[in-house]
Design a protein that fits this description.
heterodimer; A: 259 residues; 2 domains; globular; B: 114 residues; mainly alpha; 5 helices; flat
């Protein structure tokens, strides 16, 4: 097993050149999107995270169909962990909904920033609905990495493939985790919960393009513990918008100095 | 079938408390994002805010850890992530090496603490 993992990381799936006639077929573009799942270690991270989510759902007495439904419909690891653990601890549906809504705010700027990479002048909003549903951290960072290698008019088909591939892997992992729950060692739970911050940090760091991204990451981490002392309920939103805006301000100021 | 999915009530809660709170933000993003140009300066700001909010999510899990992670001492959580990040930088940004190293530090630390 480690050998195959090693190979898939060292030699990611080679996409044909942008000018290749092979890109003419949307179905092929979809298939390349799906096989690109094998080109990223984040797939393994998602797999392990969803093992954990399946196990958590089992231990919190949810049905298998319910947790599979949550993977399909919610499609955001941290939101599912919050949903299952708040409902499982006896909180009301309203309390759970509020906690999940706050955690999901990050999806808004992620969608806004990645959709312009996929559209052509002919693209209608309805063509982007499924892509939008697939957007979560992993797809967001992988789109920045992979889409420049895909011709613009095939990017939606490619992303549909990538999204379906990642979702399939996670559905399998959710089922396995649900079945294995009773046999997983307790240390495993802590290790899986650490995967989310670790993988989010490293994939966001790899995704940094400009000084504003680096600053946003550093300031965002530094500001949250300070803002969280205010206990506003939307601490993440306050620290995120503040850190992001300062980072953008620095970028703007440097660009102006250069012009 | 009803055994597989559980009660209709549980499914309703999944839709209302799980699906809709996420989908509302995604569809709002679709509404705004579909009108923005790729080269637009606004996107630099939106990307920075998205990155900073993610950074907040990372910090929140580390500072206010959920579930079993709360049983790991603070220094070990921070140390594991710092070690993972250091290895990531040393290996020319290999996420794989960074994640594996962070996890090894966590597991070794927990094992050593008993």
């Amino acid at each position: 097993m480690p050998a195959t993992i090693q190979i898939s990381i060292r030699s990611p799936v080679a996409l044909p050149p942008l000018s290749s006639p092979q890109w003419k077929s949307p179905i092929r573009a979809f298939a390349w999107g799906m096989s690109s799942v094998a080109s990223t270690v984040l797939t393994l991270v998602l797999f392990a995270t969803y093992l954990g989510i399946g196990a958590l759902a089992h231990d919190s007495h949810f049905s298998l169909g319910w947790v599979l439904g949550s993977t399909l419909l919610v499609w955001a690891g941290p939101a599912q962990i919050i949903l299952i653990s708040t409902l499982g601890s006896g909180a009301t549906a309203v309390q759970a909904a509020i906690a999940v809504t706050v955690s999901a705010i990050r999806l808004f700027p992620m969608v806004v920033s990645v959709l312009p990479l996929m559209k052509t002048p002919q693209t209608k909003r309805r063509h982007l609905v499924l892509v939008t549903h697939f957007i979560a951290v992993t797809l967001w960072v992988e789109c920045y990495r992979l889409l420049p290698k895909v011709p613009r008019e095939r990017r939606i088909a490619f992303t549909h493939g990538l999204g379906c591939g990642l979702l399939s892997v996670c559905m399998v992992a959710t089922t396995l985790g649900y079945g294995l729950a009773a046999n997983l060692p307790p240390l495993f739970a802590a290790a899986i919960l650490l995967l989310t911050p670790l993988a989010f940090l490293l994939s966001t760091a790899r995704n940094c393009r400009q000084i504003s991204d680096v600053l946003a990451l550093v300031l965002g981490i530094a500001l949250f513990p300070l803002v969280s002392m205010l206990h506003t309920g939307v601490d993440i939103l306050i620290s995120g918008v503040t850190a992001g805006t300062i980072a953008y301000g620095v970028h703007w100021w440097r660009e102006r100095g250069r012009a | 079938m009803s055994e597989f999915f559980g009660s209709p009530h549980a499914l309703l809660i999944l839709v209302l408390a799980g699906f809709l709170p996420n989908e509302v933000w995604r569809m709002a993003g679709l509404w705004f994002g579909a009108g923005v140009d790729e080269g637009s300066e606004v996107l630099v700001w939106v990307r920075a805010v998205a990155t900073a909010i993610l950074a907040g999510v990372i910090a929140q899990i580390l500072v206010q850890p959920p579930g079993a992670l709360a049983g790991v001492p603070d220094w070990l959580r921070y140390g594991a992530v710092a070690a993972g990040f250091a290895v990531f930088m040393l290996t020319r940004r290999s996420i794989f090496a960074g994640v594996v190293c962070g996890e090894i530090v966590l597991l070794a630390g927990k094992w050593w603490l008993g």
